[in-house]
Amino acid sequence: MPSSRARAAAGLIDNPANLARQKAWIFVGTDDDVVRPAVVDTLSAYYANFMPAQNIVYRHDIETFHNQVVLEGDRRVQPCAYKNNAILRDAYVNDCDYDAAGELLQHIYGPLAPRNGGVLSGSFIAFNQNEFIAGARSAGMDDSGWAYVPASCAQGAQCRGHVAFHGCFQYAQYVDDAYVRNSGLNQWADSNRLIVLYPQTVSIALRNPNGCFDWWGYTSPDTYDTRNGVQIAPVKRMLDRLAAPRTGAGGGGAGEVHQLVFASNAADDGYVKARAGGGAAETGVFSSLATGRGSDGKFNRAVLSFDTSAIPAGATVVRAVLRVTHHWRFGYPWDDAAAGPITIDVARGVFGARASAEPADWGVSPTAAAVASIARFTGAGLSGPFSAAGLAALNQGSGAITQLRLQFSDKQSAPGYVRIADGALATLSVDYR
What are residue 283's DSSP bridge partners? Predict the structure, then answer.
């Protein structure tokens, strides 16, 4: 392998002498048996060839395994001493009561405003990675990438960009949005006008089964780690797009149509069930969301919750489409004439008293009913465009939440239901002016 200096001389990378004005923050758990501390020692030594000592921070004194450590997180974050298991679809993020993200960001950028430890102001937004790399999946990149955009940035403030490359097994199609929401970076980004870019990979059988970013050459053994790298180059184009001049709160001229893609909030998603005609409702207990009649004779309705605060208040929404992903099924509810397609109700806010799923979500009246439907699907299911009433029901502006309720008719004559995935695998695309 040519040296860094030789690659720079060939024009494949920038001059490593430029690293003298950069900073590196390096971490490894004392018990990491995947990338062992001795290996990470060599990375620290590499940077020492180009950086002054004070620009390098190397933490290798926390007793944990192969994972990203955070100060706190949701239910998908494991205790510090837990050894993650990819077969269980663990997120490889562990709560070690240590704010690695804060230490990293403040080392790189200098003193920052305190992290937002409460409700975030901004939005998690999906974007089409195929705009930046043709045939994304053939290069190990997912169709969608993610970004956390603080409200201040969405409203036109000048913001910086930070790229977060997930690790192996942390890609969204495998662990949903567990890494994107629990990286620890978003809380600091929210109060410091920092957009966090989360590019996404996918698994490629044999070449890259673990969904890693290319750190050994599976896309191109000669150029994967250069400015022309199959994955590096499109990430640079993503950053260039973020840096492009914008006008107006929506990021364009008057009358221009803008698109936002929202992932559902898996922590609040759920499903509720009751017998035909109502009766006592209850929340479901499984992680995937059921829609249709169960073998217990009860009818299930799935509820998806979206943070739609990135739609500017007063915007005119011109199109909205829901995309869901098949997880499992029992029977073929579409074959039951009484069941019909899956229909979608909209709540401008929440159906019940809170964002998380609750029994009241089953029967409460929506803001707009049957705004669109989803026909039979086996992989991804795409709704038709929302009706005018559905578009008007989408919540906008700071703190806005929009919930969707999915259901078959409660006149199904026999058991038959579909389970869908949520989080990054359930997205609401919204076009607005």
Answer: 272
